[in-house]
Design brief:
single chain; 403 residues; alpha/beta; Aspartate Aminotransferase, domain 1; Aspartate Aminotransferase, domain 2; 2 domains
C-alpha cells in the first residue's frame, strides 16, 4: 500500500484547521533529539509540550510499555489492575495525600476537580457555595469547565456561554484575592508556575494569604501541576517549595511517559466526596499508561533528574543572562528548574521560525515569550547548543537590522 505523503498540503486536506503545525514530519527520536523523515536532527527544547520528561527511546519506558501491552492493553475500570494500584501508591507516597483518580489528559483532571469541588461544597448546606475561581493569565484546558477557568479571549471567543459561577482573581494581587473569595467560594485553582501564561510563579505572600482565606471561608485549593509537575521545576510538585498545601492536585503531561494519562490526587478533606457513578472514564488509568507512569517516576528518581533539572536549569539561566546583557531584544529571563521563559520585545514566534531553520525546536507562548521545556535528561552540552543557537539568531537579527 502506498503511504500518504506527510506534508502540509495533506494535513490541510485531512484535518480541522486547529493546529499551526511546524513544517516538519518527524519519524522518531533519540535522547533529546527528534529526527524528521529526511534524516534531519532537531534539538528538542519543547519535549512534546512538556510531556517527554525522559526524552526519546528510554529503554526502561519502552520495556514497561511492551511488557504490559503483551499482558493487557485495556480492561476498563470495572476491574482492579496492578499497574493502577502501583502508580496510585507512588503518587500518594510522593504527595502525602489520600486518594487518586486517573483520567486521560490534563483538561479531564481539571474537569474532575471542578466536579469534586462542587460536590464537596454541597455538603455544607450553603446553596450558593458553587463558585470556582482561577487566576488571570492562567491556562487550565480547552473543555468547557477548564476553558471557563482559563477565560482568555483567544480560547473562549465564539464558545460562550461558559460554565456559570466561575471567575478570575488577578495573578499575585492579594487585594483582589481578598475581594473575590467569600463564603460562596468552593475552590480556587492555581498554577504555581504558569506555563502558557509565560513562566510566572505565584509569590509566597499570595500563597500564604490564600491559605489564611481558605481557613476563613472553607474552600479548596486546587493545584494545577499539569505542566510544572513531575520534577520539571526541580521538585516533584512545583508547589512544594511554597508550602501551598493543596486539597487537590492535577497531574498529566509527563505522567504517562508519553501515553495519555492524568491524575487527580486528593487530601483527606475530599477523600469521601465521590460515590459510585458520580464520575468515571472508560480509558482513564489504562494499564499500559500506568505501567509507563511507574517507569517514568522510577527513572526520574533513579537518575536524579530533579537535581538535573535544577542544575541544568540554573546553567541555562546564567547563560541566558549573559545573552540578555549582550542583546537588547531580551527583556527578562524567568527560570524554575527546566521551565524557562525568555521575554523578548517582539512576537516570539519569529524566533521559533529562526530556531527551526537551525534545527532547534523552541516554543512561543504569551505572545512575546520564548518557552523552553526540554527533557529532564538534557546535558550541559546540549543546553549550550541551544544557547549558542539563540545567540546566533539574535546576532544575525541585529546585523541585518530586523525591526
Amino acid at each position: 500500500m502506498k503511504l500518504l505523503p506527510v506534508t502540509q498540503e495533506t494535513e490541510q486536506r485531512l484535518f480541522f484547521h486547529n493546529y499551526a503545525r511546524l513544517p516538519i514530519a518527524v519519524t522518531h527520536g533519540e535522547g533529546v533529539w527528534l529526527v524528521s523523515d529526511n534524516g534531519t536532527r532537531y534539538l528538542d527544547m519543547i519535549a512534546g509540550i512538556g510531556v517527554n520528561a525522559l526524552g526519546y527511546g528510554d529503554n526502561r519506558l519502552v520495556e514497561a510499555i511492551s511488557t504490559q501491552t503483551a499482558k493487557l492493553i485495556h480492561a476498563s475500570n470495572l476491574f482492579m489492575m496492578q499497574p493502577q494500584f502501583e502508580l496510585a501508591e507512588k503518587l500518594l507516597e510522593l504527595s502525602g495525600l489520600s486518594k487518586v483518580f486517573f483520567a486521560n489528559s490534563g483538561t479531564e483532571a481539571i474537569e474532575a476537580s471542578i466536579k469534586i469541588a462542587r460536590k464537596w461544597a454541597g455538603k455544607f448546606g450553603v446553596p450558593n457555595k458553587k463558585e470556582v475561581l482561577s487566576l488571570s493569565n492562567c491556562f487550565h484546558g480547552r473543555t468547557y469547565g477548564a476553558m471557563s477557568l482559563t477565560a482568555k479571549a483567544k480560547y473562549v471567543d465564539g464558545f460562550e456561554p461558559l460554565l456559570p459561577e466561575t471567575g478570575m482573581i488577578t495573578f499575585n494581587d492579594i487585594s483582589d484575592l481578598e475581594a473575590k473569595v467569600s463564603e460562596k467560594t468552593a475552590a480556587v485553582f492555581i498554577e504555581v508556575v504558569q506555563g502558557e501564561g509565560g513562566i510566572h510563579r505565584i509569590s509566597q505572600q499570595f500563597i500564604d494569604r490564600l491559605k489564611e482565606l481558605r481557613q476563613q471561608y472553607n474552600f479548596l485549593i486546587v493545584a494545577d501541576d499539569i505542566q510544572a509537575g513531575c520534577g520539571r521545576t526541580g521538585t516533584f510538585f512545583s508547589y512544594t517549595p511554597l508550602n501551598a498545601e493543596p486539597d487537590l492536585v492535577c497531574l498529566a503531561k509527563p505522567l504517562g511517559g508519553g501515553l495519555p494519562l492524568s491524575a487527580v490526587i486528593g487530601s483527606e478533606k475530599v477523600a469521601d466526596v465521590l460515590s459510585y457513578g458520580n464520575h468515571g472514564t472508560t480509558f482513564g488509568g489504562n494499564p499500559v499508561a500506568c505501567a509507563a507512569g511507574i517507569a517514568m517516576i522510577n527513572a526520574i528518581q533513579d537518575d536524579n533528574l530533579m537535581e538535573n533539572a535544577k542544575s541544568i536549569g540554573k546553567y541555562i539561566n546564567e547563560e541566558l543572562q549573559k545573552l540578555a546583557a549582550k542583546h537588547s531584544r531580551i527583556l527578562e529571563i524567568r527560570q524554575y528548574g527546566l521551565m524557562i521563559g525568555i521575554t523578548v520585545n517582539k512576537e516570539a514566534k519569529y524566533y521559533v521560525g529562526k530556531a527551526l531553520e537551525k534545527q532547534v525546536l523552541v516554543n512561543a507562548t504569551s505572545v512575546n515569550v520564548i518557552r523552553l521545556l526540554p527533557p529532564l535528561t538534557i546535558s550541559r552540552e546540549e543546553a549550550q547548543h541551544c544557547i549558542t543557537t539563540l545567540d546566533e539568531i539574535f546576532s544575525e537579527e541585529e546585523a541585518e537590522g530586523v525591526s
